[in-house]
Input
Amino acid sequence: MKYIFFSILTLMALGAQAQKSELALKYANTITNEDLFDYLGILASDALEGRETGERGQRMAAALISHHFQSLGLIPPVKNGDQMSYYQNVPLISTKIKSAHLKIGKSQYDNFNKTIFVGSGVTNGEESSEVVFVGDGSAESYKGLDVAGKAVLMITPNSYRKAVALSRIAAENGAKLALVVRTSSDEVLEELVTSYRGYYEAGRMTVDTGIEETQFVGMYFTAPSLMKELTGKTYEKLKALADANSVGDFKKVKVGRIAFNVEKQVKKISSENVMGYLEGSDLKDELVVVTSHYDHLGRRGDKIFNGADDDGSGTAGVMDMAQAFAMAKAEGNGPRRSMLFLAFTGEEKGLLGSEYYADHPVFPLENTVTNLNMDMIGRYDEENYKGKDYVCLVGSDKLSTELHQISEQANAIYTNLELNYVYNDENHPEQIYYRSDHWNFAKNGIPVIFYTTGSHDDYHEETDTVEKIEKEVYLKRTRLVFYTAWELVNRDKRPALDEKPSN
Output
């Protein structure tokens, strides 16, 4: 009798699972190429002028997304004065570097001359300073070192995000300037100069924190050859000292004085994150956040950078997923957990919209179960994966092994895409984990999955246009995110965070 009872329970459980699967299939099938390309056709049209942050085209895109959320009956979750809004206002500052240089002895190195470029700068006029070597620039590196009012020289990983974080540690210790060496060769820095030049000359944006500028100037990315000119030691010798992290040895590195200058223009800009809220049922206090960024590069003269794949594809995916889940709720099959569909501004300017949301969350971060982020999901990596039914996943196993398993299972049951983890490697040179909006959730301990397809020849070019989107695989990728979200919002328990290894 006992075995019959348990068999009945098993059959009931399997029946419930089958029913859930049928519901997931039903609403996933409402995500269609027709809808995706309707939204994408507007987002990536010339009329929206490339959707550059703070410009007219970006505001037009915001209006399109917010109107869509309103039409679905999603709740406007942001309190603006006495009104509730789909917009979270994001205050920004645009800084355009007019000129900059670094002087070592009698030698002057100008910005973008292959040996330095300004990563950030907040002062006008030339200053001079002593320089202190601080190894890898980690907080421990400053113990016993006096860097107040001085410049610091550090060797960092080849990651802009990590360099910014380490320069902030320098500022917290009273430093005036950070000279950041993030490559082992001048040639690699020259490639970075080529990549970043247009970005910085167009004007660099940051979130306006309302905090007055301090004595900290910012950072110069510096060629390894200049380290020897400053210290008399090769990059390899200084790297060995940094790896050993011996502050006593840092003190023995004699560094010459420098002079530096940054001249800039500053203006304040207002932009918007756009979000719609779908309230859950019995687990409504917990939240799954589905995201993309809707900004792009705008226009340069007569050229319009439409950004169909980057990230019109992800934004259209968010819009169609919102429609599917809203329909499910309207028919009595709504999610147990609440959902936030969120389109970020300012990603191309440095993940600014997501940075602002993480610092000013509309819903408590501790209640946020997972972030599913889509950025460039409509094309193939033409060099490596042309014609394959694949998607690259980043971050799924970084904080929660259980989330990774949920993701794998959703794919195995529903979409059967090839899940590629090449960009998930911490040592991958592109450092993708730190380069899209999911990072601002992950750094706050929220499990994430970033869906992307890798680069292609049209990345950040005016040729990233709608007709190049691969319809069938784009649809499959969007539905995979839906199926994963469906499981996350309806399962009994949120994905468990992995235990941190004890020290």
User: Anything to note?
Assistant: The first helix runs from residue 2 to 28. Residues 351 and 436 are 6 Å apart (CA to CA).
